[in-house]
Write a structure and sequence with these properties.
The structure is a homohexamer of 315-residue chains.
Chain A: E1 12-26, E2 32-40, E3 43-49, H1 54-59, E4 65-75, E5 78-88, H2 108-120, H3 125-137, H4 139-142, H5 158-176, H6 182-192, H7 196-199, H8 210-214, H9 216-232, H10 239-249, H11 266-288
Parallel strand pairs in A: 3-5
Antiparallel strand pairs in A: 1-2, 1-4, 2-3, 4-5
Helix pairs in contact in A: 2-5, 3-6, 3-9, 5-6, 5-11, 6-10, 6-11, 9-10
Amino acid sequence: MKKLKELVLDETFEMFVLLKNADVRMAKNGKKFIAFTFQDTSGTIDGKFWDASEEEIKKFSAGRVVLLGGKREAYQGAPQIKILNMRLATETEPDSPSLYMEKAPISREEMEAEFSSAIFEITNANWNRIVRHLFSQYQQQFFEFPAAKRNHHAFAGGLAYHTLSMLRIAKSLTDFYPEINKALLYAGIILHDLGKVIELTGPISTEYTLAGNLLGHLVIVDEEITKTCQTLKIDDRSEDVLILKHLVLSHHGLLEYGSPVRPQILEAEILHQLDNMDASIQMMLGALRSINPGERTERIFGMDNRNFYLPHFND
Amino acid sequence: MKKLKELVLDETFEMFVLLKNADVRMAKNGKKFIAFTFQDTSGTIDGKFWDASEEEIKKFSAGRVVLLGGKREAYQGAPQIKILNMRLATETEPDSPSLYMEKAPISREEMEAEFSSAIFEITNANWNRIVRHLFSQYQQQFFEFPAAKRNHHAFAGGLAYHTLSMLRIAKSLTDFYPEINKALLYAGIILHDLGKVIELTGPISTEYTLAGNLLGHLVIVDEEITKTCQTLKIDDRSEDVLILKHLVLSHHGLLEYGSPVRPQILEAEILHQLDNMDASIQMMLGALRSINPGERTERIFGMDNRNFYLPHFND
Amino acid sequence: MKKLKELVLDETFEMFVLLKNADVRMAKNGKKFIAFTFQDTSGTIDGKFWDASEEEIKKFSAGRVVLLGGKREAYQGAPQIKILNMRLATETEPDSPSLYMEKAPISREEMEAEFSSAIFEITNANWNRIVRHLFSQYQQQFFEFPAAKRNHHAFAGGLAYHTLSMLRIAKSLTDFYPEINKALLYAGIILHDLGKVIELTGPISTEYTLAGNLLGHLVIVDEEITKTCQTLKIDDRSEDVLILKHLVLSHHGLLEYGSPVRPQILEAEILHQLDNMDASIQMMLGALRSINPGERTERIFGMDNRNFYLPHFND
Amino acid sequence: MKKLKELVLDETFEMFVLLKNADVRMAKNGKKFIAFTFQDTSGTIDGKFWDASEEEIKKFSAGRVVLLGGKREAYQGAPQIKILNMRLATETEPDSPSLYMEKAPISREEMEAEFSSAIFEITNANWNRIVRHLFSQYQQQFFEFPAAKRNHHAFAGGLAYHTLSMLRIAKSLTDFYPEINKALLYAGIILHDLGKVIELTGPISTEYTLAGNLLGHLVIVDEEITKTCQTLKIDDRSEDVLILKHLVLSHHGLLEYGSPVRPQILEAEILHQLDNMDASIQMMLGALRSINPGERTERIFGMDNRNFYLPHFND
Amino acid sequence: MKKLKELVLDETFEMFVLLKNADVRMAKNGKKFIAFTFQDTSGTIDGKFWDASEEEIKKFSAGRVVLLGGKREAYQGAPQIKILNMRLATETEPDSPSLYMEKAPISREEMEAEFSSAIFEITNANWNRIVRHLFSQYQQQFFEFPAAKRNHHAFAGGLAYHTLSMLRIAKSLTDFYPEINKALLYAGIILHDLGKVIELTGPISTEYTLAGNLLGHLVIVDEEITKTCQTLKIDDRSEDVLILKHLVLSHHGLLEYGSPVRPQILEAEILHQLDNMDASIQMMLGALRSINPGERTERIFGMDNRNFYLPHFND
Amino acid sequence: MKKLKELVLDETFEMFVLLKNADVRMAKNGKKFIAFTFQDTSGTIDGKFWDASEEEIKKFSAGRVVLLGGKREAYQGAPQIKILNMRLATETEPDSPSLYMEKAPISREEMEAEFSSAIFEITNANWNRIVRHLFSQYQQQFFEFPAAKRNHHAFAGGLAYHTLSMLRIAKSLTDFYPEINKALLYAGIILHDLGKVIELTGPISTEYTLAGNLLGHLVIVDEEITKTCQTLKIDDRSEDVLILKHLVLSHHGLLEYGSPVRPQILEAEILHQLDNMDASIQMMLGALRSINPGERTERIFGMDNRNFYLPHFND
């Protein structure tokens, strides 16, 4: 059976999908409608449900699985679903949300194994103990959360997958440039976005928490390292702890992007650039997968609102 | 006897002064010189000591008191001292550095009393306990440190005095605008710059510490609140703790100025503006005190490099 | 009876309100509608009147009082009224617009008294004569006009009230910092926004006049001072007149905000910051009054489009 | 005899020149020196007079004519004079400053004639009366002042010459584009920089006046128009007066460049662009005249600090 | 018979017009509509065709002439047509698109003559040969293309007309300033926008080509000069060729506007400013022609989104 | 024997070095001096030669080898040489400049082999032919030139080495992300900076050529591809050629950095980021190699003028 992202323009269909988001809004004419984001393992498409009754609003909430009949159309360049009919999946049908969530392209087990060997290479005792402590404390959410509310790696497990991709490129870099401190770079990469498990609410209907809004995930990790040091009796004013914190705090690269300090250490600058590169590639690939050669993607907010052209050479 | 700042152009003098800074540099001709900042209670003036021998460099180090014979000149609009002769003060002379340091215009005792009553008005239990704990932990340095390496309130006790001035204006504001939460604003003001006692090295030859460079004083206070909560068993994810941290983290107002988040709470925005206003007034007053009506101050770095005109109406 | 701002979500009501604005626009379907701003003394809420006939457009014009039946809904986070029925108020009903206008929180008489004593403290003869002359010339409009077309203090009397708030904070500042020239600061505050009585059309359906658009209120006040000097035979090139003009011209602080010169006098910089602070507080308070603890305000244009969070501590 | 600008690198000379500027500064070694700008009708070159005595400082002041013996060298790409000997010109020698001032390339009489016919074409009565009144009031200075303290047209008569060049290009434009209101554009051009006769101190040792610093020449002209209207009993709130003022106030084009309003009228935008174009051409030509084909000019501050290349095609 | 731009608000009409653009979009309700731009020789007005069938979409495509019955209304300040009825023009009716296209105000023959004499004045042999070669190669499109997709000179022949206007002003400038190399400036002007015949698709339904998007018209002309040199055996690294290329590449003035280098030659800077000035005047005149005295134009994207006021003095 | 970069502070020495740069300047006192950059295979250090005679200036020109006696000092944080004595190397001494040039860390042969196999992987015929043609045409200079005048990879062979590093990281990336078109990315990387062999004068006394200044290396490569297509009869308007050119033109990422277009293709964006990352790492490593743990590097112009801290963990 076809997946959401495989539908072509004007194709009609009926399939089970997950309601990833279900925002109730009011139309200009005063009636309510639901702005859905439908999801299956191939990705997400939006669709609007007009003139929604209070009952329908209650029934079709985020996180439910539905049998959706619709037509794949386009609105201002982006694909969208025209809803023809829709009902909740029953118990005898495939109604478990986890069946429809986009997943990282490799399994959790493989990822865990790669993280294990990466942590093994963190040879500085303080860094190793801090990383192990926090990694095991937040492991559950780390492998379930997306890397961002939207934009890049916005799928279940995206946070772990993004972190892993960075570790892989970092490995190549440290092979070419032996002056780079591999232990530090690995420790920094593993912790840099870990605060997102506190900044965001989770993989479905992802929102910012109050702590996320008021502190941001950079400071949140800094606090977690501080508490870990107190617990493990590590001096949090020693140079190696200060440097690890600095990698986390400076990884957005510029003050304008929310880092309270700019990178002042070789590995901090590299961490920032790796983060940037991996996020960019994911955002571009995500948008390019939805179009055909000769077309342009929709504008990508996280890429300065640029759109990208897909050449014919992949035919 | 005349003070440093009372000297007029081309006046010669002999007086005891403190060596606030003593930076050794190399002239274009390859010889070393010492760039001194001389200080007494009236303020500071720079002066260069040419062709310094290794022995002189060792002898005339920052923090020593000297008997200085010189002439008050000007260099590119700023006052400077031409050094005619100079020797260390002896034990029988007034050789204690504290005699020459610029001080806050009111006494430490008065300041302590005002802080006490301000803390008394912090009626929220969590905020009150956190503020009391940190205030007593760092009280010693808080009353000795300057508020900045240079720019505003750069004198011993300047940190406490700047904080106090802000509390005073805050009091007026909360009188006019009763919607402002006075307890929160007071707690935020008292803690906002407390991290400077860790960010800076102290009142003499003030430099940034490694923690100051790599974390910045905003994040340092945030960490201190985190540790205090762990010690006092306060939930550091409760709304009132998050908000207090937010006031500290956002008080630079803009991301470009090093706040990882912009103010999102009424009192956070007000704290930022009060900080700005008090610092500005101090910088302008400091520069205006050195000139005569009809003249312009030197350019003030912290005021976008503007200079200011002193009108004749004060005559 | 309930006021506009006291209505809760989905509450239906019938009440008399003033039509503060009534902009006729065309919908995408080619039919006309009226975008109303309804007002009573508690504030304003928008509402759209669909498919308006030419007769209705003529009848429901800005400045009229209507009996409005409606429902309080929300559109994109901001409160709005769904209009159920609406008719003009009759002569036997409370149909005077002044009954529904938001007002400054203190009476005109009290404000006048405070202005009188403030002007009394302007001890420089030139400044005093100029201020008295312009204040009495434009007194009527000064106490009726809003401080801005929208954003801060956008209510009848808002201009006088904003000016008065600034005078109050200025009083505290000059108490702490006796170096500030109180006479100059008071004169500058009273005149700084007086040009708005020429820049804007008035308290209802407020628009910019041609002079407002082509010159702006800063230059308008400058011209008024120039004319006053010619009338009162004061030398408009004397230092004290130049300085007073400078305070007015520079009070937006930055060239980008429309000041032809940046502040170059202590009191000019302070005036700019006081203006900023009072306007900010009013904008935030205005937005916070419409929401409940735990919610966020709508985005405030004048505050760099930020929204603000209302904590639970006020419960 | 050779002129200053005709000297080649390393050429020694003796000639009478005017001291255009004579700034006394202190060298790093504490001795005073005079930074001269020498001038004759070909242009200006800088030169430093080391170890100046108090008597020499008094004698060699700006505005005096000297017999200068020196060598034409270069310092950081810019030509400069090494002073070999120097004495004041005597009464029997050509000691009148006016003999050495750079002048506009056409005579004052020719310029006056062109202005007369331009004013004749200002057919709107209000604009014509205002222009005539102010032009005759400031005529003397208008033909003597430079157009700027430095940068473009910084020579005696430069203000009138710059204004005239703009009128000439404006004439061509109004020929091609008859929709442009020629009377308005001419009136705006003639008045746009007239305030510089109040903003600056004059053609020698040009500095900003207090009014120049605190108000700026845009607002100064606006005030002069206001006073003229009061004197001539013209309504200064009539549309044509508002528009004329708008042309003057907006002629810097951007708020960042000191215009309190941006151009909102066709002729205001054109005036701004003509001003820009003529000033740019003059700055570039001035710098290019000092170099040979294949070389680059010094960096020009008023052209975003760019330097320009002189090709060989002019050989 | 009335033209499109002569219709007044609310006037109904029936007339033949060209469909300049016909973009098919989807409304929020899921139905398709066509966003038309209607055109006759007086200009263009937009109008929406709701609920378009597939047949209508095919029939009413860009480039067809239709008999349009409609009403002239306004939408958000801009004129628009409400479509009442519409059918294709038949063979017996005036159905040739060229009858309805806006044209340059002077004839192609006159323009060709002026270009001929301008090219005659390009006295440098290399420049002359390059210009002649490219001008004759692309002559056909050069006289048919618009100067831009929208904004300035967006009509058939606009590219040639814009180029010609610049040549005219350049002629005046070179008369006043004989230091300007007329041959170079003329050559640069003629070539500067020639790449638009490759960057854009043509005068109807103007879009960017793939080369236009990926290279831009500046680099396209640079490539064309390179190829011409290879064909004509001119050394493309000689100074005069480098300079001509530089004029083309730098004519947007700033890197931010897409020039890979900023102007470094007198004539390059002047070319940039002339381009700017002529484009600005055309944009303003185009917008001002649609409104009455006392009104403001719609916001003009190419003029930093400003709108302009039309005074009454033209009555 | 010790190398230049191995000298410690205040160490005296005598060694053969190459004069990489020898700029003659004039001191404030009017005497000439030579600002040398001394070089051996360990790197470069600056040193000033005071009071240089004309004969010495002629003798000690860039590109000569000298026997230098000196002392390693420091000036404003950067190492510098105090010259004690200096003479030209004789024929019997090691006087070949190539003995002293900093070189890429791997041999030319190894690099050539890696380039060969990379070109082999460019499977698109057009790209392969273009790359082969240009690579063989400019091979000689490509392996000798630096990658920049200063900043990153500023050593002989730096251009080839920088390009090779990028190919290596690109290889890892294409392994992880198979959607990336490896042939295109390799072709783009090899050509992206090839224009520097025309933009710069060579490995010694590196300056910009006229073509470099007026066109820039991005446009230069674009022209070279254009000429290659004409020579090899490849259609330069085909999609694959347009895309290859686009990769070159857009590789500075932002218009402000001199790209006439921003990246619009996945591989173009990746090329830009790889370029950035490799250049950054080289600049940081270069600066960090000159300092000890606990110190800060000098400010690095190409890294937004930041300096970097070297932690103690490498001890």
